[in-house]
Structures are given as C-alpha cells and as structure tokens.
Amino acid sequence: MIKICFVCTGNTCRSIMAERLLKKMIKDKKIDNIKVSSRGILAKGENIAQNAKLVLKECRASVANRKAVKLGKIDKDTLYIAMTENQKAQVKSDKVISMKSLLGEDIADPFGQSIEEYRKVAQKLILANQVLLDKIFEHK
User: Fold this and answer.
1) 109 is catalytic
2) Which of 17, 34, 37, 73 has its CA 20 to 30 A from that of 45?
3) Would residue 59 show up in a list of annotated catalytic residues for this protein?
4) C-alpha to C-alpha distance for 46 and 25, rounded to whole angstroms
5) Domains (ranges, CATH) in the chain?
C-alpha cells in the first residue's frame, strides 16, 4: 500500500483539493493500492473553502464536508507532498517532496480569491497528480 498525504497551511483549499482530485483519478483508473489523505500545518478545524467545493464539483470529485485536520505525528511510511518549498521545510519527514519537484513551481494559496484562481489551482493539482502517478508506476 502506498500512502500519500498532501500538506498545505490550513487544509481548506489546496491540500484537500489535491486529495480529492487524486482520489478521483485513482478511482477512475481503478487503482486500489494507494491511500490518500491531507493535512494542514496550521489547520484549525474549518470546513473546506466554498470555492474549493465548487471547483471539486466541476471536476466531479467529492465535495463531502470535512473539517480541516492538523498535521500531527509523522508516519515514516507516508509520502508527504507539500504545496510549497516553505511547507516542505516544516514537514519533519525523510519522505517529503514539494509540488515544485513535480511541477516546477509552488502552488500558491487561493484562499479568499476568485473561483478562477481555484480553477487554476485545480488544473495545476491535476497535472501534478498525473506526474505523481506516472512516477509511482514507472518505479514498479
């Protein structure tokens, strides 16, 4: 079983979107050996941002409510994927990468911005998730 945890600041936008989009991709591709989660470095239990839910719905991914979860104990068997290089430095794991290593750029926080910004983030996350899946399965 491969375990992946996306990490951002509050776990209300980027990381939860990355989680839900990857779950949809692995379901569509009928992949069953990957477990996906998300956490926030400073998460305080808020709900998913409304614009994140709207974009997830457009992408046909889950829009189920979920409270943001704070990054706690690090699991040595989980691959952590941080949205930014700064966040990567805050995840105390030997198995942490950033979106920059997948996409060549950090994923900026769309919190409080327009639906268009959330759509741009979703498109970047979909690309990054595809790169991630390609890397996982080329090493099998």
Assistant:
1) yes
2) 34
3) no
4) 25
5) 2-138 (3.40.50.2300)
- Please confirm, yes or no, whether 8 is among the known catalytic residues: yes
For the CA atoms of 95, 100, 103, 109, the dihedral, rounded to the nearest 10 degrees, stands at 110
The predicted-structure confidence for 13-52, as pLDDT tens digits, reads as follows 999 999 999 999 999 999 999 999 999 999 999 999 999 9
- From 82, 103, 118, 64, select the one nearest 4 (Cα to Cα): 82
> How far apart are the two ends of the chain, measured CA to CA in Å?
12
Q: Which residue has the tokens 């996306």?
A: 6
Residue of 5, 8, 13, 59 marked active site: 8
Please give the pLDDT value at position 75.
97
Say how far apart CA 55 and CA 3 lie, in whole Å: 25
Q: Which two tokens stand for residue 20?
A: 């839900």
- Cα–Cα distance for residue pair 89/86, rounded to 1 Å: 5
Which residues are registered as beta bridge partners of 39?
7
